[in-house]
Amino acid sequence: MMFFLFIGFIIIQRLTELAIARKNEKWMKSQGGLEFGSGHYPAMVMIHSAFILSTIAEVVILDRELSAFWPLLIVLFVLTQLMRVWALLSLGPFWNTKIIVLPGAKVVKKGPYRFIKHPNYVIVALELIVIPLMFNAYWTAAVFTLLNMIILSVRIPEEEKALASLTQYEKEFHDNGRFIPNLLNKYDN
């Protein structure tokens, strides 16, 4: 029962995020925003949908139990959710599941984006490990971590190229790491 409440929360969260993304997409395109990387987007959606289905299948079919490490994993999960909200709120109407860039827009460099270029991808990577491990779904954690690495190897360069071509992205983020904060440069000023 606890598993289905947990996975139900995740499904509702993802559907809510898709609704926010659609609203933001409509606004950005009405302002002249351009979409990039649409070729890989269906694969990304498929991976994220299959992740949820795989988690459910592994837990139910293989009769997985709640992990003995669940207290640590739930803390990590809550932290990822707080970071997710922080990243989403920091980008505001510029947040999206697609790569949509508003030409000439001021680059958002607040919240977690002050420290790293792609906090949302770090959060997703952690979730793809933490969520299945909460219920000992090791196969799902391993397979979807690998699939996520593959899709991000396409998505991140596409996103950075799009941002660099239409904004001051490279200038603003020249000293930020992609996934690991470069704290030394943050406090030199």
From TrEMBL:
The chain crosses the membrane at residues 45-62, 69-89, 121-147. It comes from the Bacteria. GO terms for cellular component: membrane. One of its GO terms (molecular function) is protein C-terminal S-isoprenylcysteine carboxyl O-methyltransferase activity. This is Isoprenylcysteine carboxyl methyltransferase. Keywords: Membrane, Transmembrane, Transmembrane helix. The lineage of its organism: Bacteria, Bacillati, Bacillota, Bacilli, Bacillales. It is found in: Membrane. It is a multi-pass membrane protein. It comes from Mesobacillus campisalis. InterPro entries: ICMT_MeTrfase (IPR007269), Metal_cation-efflux_comp (IPR052527).
